Amino acid sequence: MSEENLDHFEMRRLESLSNTVFGVAMTLLAYDLPKVGVFKGMPGWHDLYQLYAGQLSGLILSFIIAGLFWVSHHRRLARQPYGTRRVVIVNLFFLLSIILLPVTNGLYGNYRLSSAVAVLYGLHLTLIASLNALLWWFTRGEGEHPPELARAIFPILVFVPATLLALVAPQYVQYVWFLAFGGFFAHRFADRRWKS
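The structure corresponding to this sequence follows.
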């Protein structure tokens, strides 16, 4: 075995770990949902709406974001069957940022009108997107800029200004965060430009 191969890690092992991490994180998003409030009497529709409106929107947003990053992560691992120690370490930090998603989601679901909580949640989403983009950067070949890299960078371009918006208008920022899903269209656009 050459010296260069000693530093390589089979990413298939990381894939098994990442499936577990994403599965646990996405399940924990809903863990505290039924225990959020206590009713004095039998709840009506208005009571349920008041209790769950913020929690459900935060849960749906975080679940979709986690799902999209899971798809991106698996596409990246399929493209890169072996990784260096540096790539593995960044992947582990990426997975740590995913496992912390239920924590910031729980805060955001309960206190979404708090500027501090909305900014913390936005910073966390930006960190996840940045680590994902960095990992896509590592997978590109010499002089290559694959369309997946454009898809990975797009959420950062949404999360950074949205986090700044959270400083002044936390009640509107969740609608801006949903724009991060436009990365799919950025990928399609970049794919066409790449092929032409």
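The two ends are 41 Å apart (CA to CA).
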